[in-house]
């Protein structure tokens, strides 16, 4: 297992080309946030916007539109239950995050089916939160896109049948291959399972144990992938900086709010930008 520490991330973040434009930095769709959990998809999309994603659209329950626009006017909005619009929107995207606050009811299952079927091979999808349960329970097919799962240990049990006391490196590698996906297994020191190697994150602390922290990570990962050369660089940099920011905040704060992490992303990224 490789260790994900300061050395890897140093100067990993690319400098923006002088004449680049928003289309160069990722077009992302966030799908989730039912009537009870709008905050989850708002945090996720905010994290992508603050990570530098070029264009962010949120597909959510209509009741969430004003809260979203108050928090991030940079994002666009569609009704996630309008399945035709949802399917046509997917076609314009580089990547999709689905699951934060999605719920698991029949409407959520329809949304999930629509998204997975509309994807094409040059796109990526991050499946998080409730979407993990739907993927497993509904026996959905692997989408025609790069698949990325971001389970916490409870969700990993749903995906792998291995509980927190049973999961282990070798069996996790085996399961990752069966899933044909990149797996970011979230825990105190999260592990990232790629096709050819496994990494362990070093920073992180218990001030992060608060609702919305994983929603925020999923948004950061998507935002980074949209701008980085490779999936590996984008994912590893996002996982590291998410917990690195939390460590800095935890020096003076008892609890680290996901929204506080989001606020600190742009300045922290600047500090790790490669000047060459
Ligand atoms: N503001 C909002 O809108 C927010 C919305 N949110 C949205 O809520 C949705 C559900 O997400 P969730 O993570 O709450 O799933 P949940 O069904 O409780 O977990 C499944 C099982 O896993 C277990 N488990 C969990 N963590 C574990 C661990 N580290 N290690 C071991 N076990 C662990 C857990 O066990 P338990 O805690 O019940 O003992 C349970 O049995 C999702 O869409 C998310 O985006 C939240 O993000 C909050 C803020
Ligand atoms: N004690 C801890 N130490 C380090 N990281 C933690 C700790 N508790 C939680 N985290 C991190 O917080 C995030 C929690 O994700 P998740 O449970 O999906 O949150 P939510 O669904 O509420 O957004 C993960 O990235 C996890 O690694
Ligand atoms: Mg979660």
Automatic annotation (TrEMBL):
<feature type="domain" description="YjeF C-terminal">
    <location>
        <begin position="5"/>
        <end position="272"/>
    </location>
</feature>
<feature type="binding site">
    <location>
        <position position="40"/>
    </location>
    <ligand>
        <name>(6S)-NADPHX</name>
    </ligand>
</feature>
<dbReference type="InterPro" id="IPR029056">
    <property type="entry name" value="Ribokinase-like"/>
</dbReference>
<keyword id="KW-0547">Nucleotide-binding</keyword>
<keyword id="KW-0456">Lyase</keyword>
<keyword id="KW-0520">NAD</keyword>
<feature type="binding site">
    <location>
        <position position="214"/>
    </location>
    <ligand>
        <name>AMP</name>
    </ligand>
</feature>
<dbReference type="InterPro" id="IPR017953">
    <property type="entry name" value="Carbohydrate_kinase_pred_CS"/>
</dbReference>
<feature type="binding site">
    <location>
        <position position="101"/>
    </location>
    <ligand>
        <name>(6S)-NADPHX</name>
    </ligand>
</feature>
<dbReference type="InterPro" id="IPR000631">
    <property type="entry name" value="CARKD"/>
</dbReference>
<keyword id="KW-0521">NADP</keyword>
<keyword id="KW-0067">ATP-binding</keyword>
<comment type="function">
    <text>Catalyzes the dehydration of the S-form of NAD(P)HX at the expense of ADP, which is converted to AMP. Together with NAD(P)HX epimerase, which catalyzes the epimerization of the S- and R-forms, the enzyme allows the repair of both epimers of NAD(P)HX, a damaged form of NAD(P)H that is a result of enzymatic or heat-dependent hydration.</text>
</comment>
<comment type="subunit">
    <text>Homotetramer.</text>
</comment>
<comment type="similarity">
    <text>Belongs to the NnrD/CARKD family.</text>
</comment>
<feature type="binding site">
    <location>
        <position position="215"/>
    </location>
    <ligand>
        <name>(6S)-NADPHX</name>
    </ligand>
</feature>
<protein>
    <recommendedName>
        <fullName>ADP-dependent (S)-NAD(P)H-hydrate dehydratase</fullName>
        <ecNumber>4.2.1.136</ecNumber>
    </recommendedName>
</protein>
<dbReference type="Pfam" id="PF01256">
    <property type="entry name" value="Carb_kinase"/>
</dbReference>
<feature type="binding site">
    <location>
        <position position="152"/>
    </location>
    <ligand>
        <name>(6S)-NADPHX</name>
    </ligand>
</feature>
